[in-house]
Amino acid sequence: MSLDLQSLRAQFPILSQQVDGKPLVYLDNAATTQKPQAVIDAIVSFYTQCNANVHRGAHHLSDEATRRYEKARDSVARFINASAREEVIWTSGTTEAINLVANGLAFQLKQGDEVMVTEMEHHANLVTWQQACLKSGATLKVVPIHDSGELDMNAFDNLLSANTRLVAIPHVSNALGTVNPIQSLTAKAKQHGALVLIDGAQGIAHGNVDVQSIGCDFYAFSGHKLFGPTGIGVLWGKQSVLQDWPVWQVGGEMISDVTYQSATWGVLPNRLEAGTPNIAGAIGLGAAVDWFTALDMPAVQAHEQQLLQSATEQAEALEGLRIIGTAPNKVGVLSFLLADAHPADVGFILDRQGVAIRTGDNCAQPLMKRFGIPGTARASFSIYNTLEEVDMLFSALKKAKMMLA
Ligand code: PMP
């Protein structure tokens, strides 16, 4: 099997549209990916054929909704190689998944404890731990990065100690594209007895995530960055850790026995999933995972690297362009500054030419400050992008450069 780009693109109805009379060149995939017809169909089919609440099955529709909803959990469990389906907890996204872990850890953290994050965090994996530390008296340790955007491994080693309760690190940086060596970082953290959470928001769509071989305790990701819908995500956690994790939201679905005075909690996964879930979202994410899994993964990865390589070469050849994030191990993310132009102006001019990129602080303000810049322009590639689109990005950038000079 290899990647048939034409038929792959044809599965994404949104890609065939025009913006201002120009073909859409969608290069904002790190913000959110587009959805294949298979995902759209799964959502439409749920609402047209079996919309009902789940786990309340006194009737056919509810049984069918429950079957599809739980089948989606099986797909996700297989996809990330969870050792049990109960380890897959539905959340609204990465942010909520990290908050779920932080809420539980808040019961354990105390003065003298340390939580480790990195300089390249998205706010979702920074502010959460910053606030948890502020509330508990624990100390937040921030692992520095090199100018290339790679983690400073010596600093990581030196910051780890017997006081480290949690190491919370991104699989892949949304702002720089850096792929972190999460397996070896996890192994080191484990030697000190720390829990490990991987922010997989950007990592999940770029390859084979095997939570058991990573060795972490938690892996969090969002459906919408993996060709699935918004409003649905996953917290994967080791059963041994999650089964005693403090419940964070209480209400229907997650209880075992309730009196007016007290309540006891159900078992995983329900004990961490209070209330009516995002049923259509979970089914849509299950369809996305099934769709993605059927692709030839080495071909997908090779294609993405080809796009990145072409973009990087053209960026290096464009005078005045400065790449932010030059680690050797990157996914298809190209963050840059164009001479003295404000990234927002660059984004605006590109948009007029049909090219969609992200501009701004990439939800990583401290990281931007670390580089002494207000933000970046960021082109991020997905499996449906073409080399011609990379060329279109650069001809649009050359125009922007002339207009802004
Ligand atoms: N972490 C990283 C690295 C991200 O890129 C994002 C999304 N930009 C998040 C966390 C948060 O994801 P969400 O907004 O889907 O919860």
Number of helices: 14
Tell me the domain tally: 2
Query: What is the CATH architecture descriptor of the largest domain?
Result: 3-Layer(aba) Sandwich
Read across the widest sheet, the strand sequence of neighbours is 4-10-9-8-7-5-6
Give me the Rg, rounded: 22 Å
The first-to-last residue Cα distance is: 46 Å
Strand content of the residues, in percent? Answer: 15-25%
Structural class label: alpha/beta
Mean pLDDT: 97
The CATH homology group name of the largest domain: Type I PLP-dependent aspartate aminotransferase-like (Major domain)
The third-level CATH topology of the largest domain is Aspartate Aminotransferase, domain 2
The shape, in one word, is globular
Residue stretches low in confidence (pLDDT < 50, at least 5 long) are none
Using the coordinates above, name the CATH class of the largest domain.
Alpha Beta
Beta strand count: 17
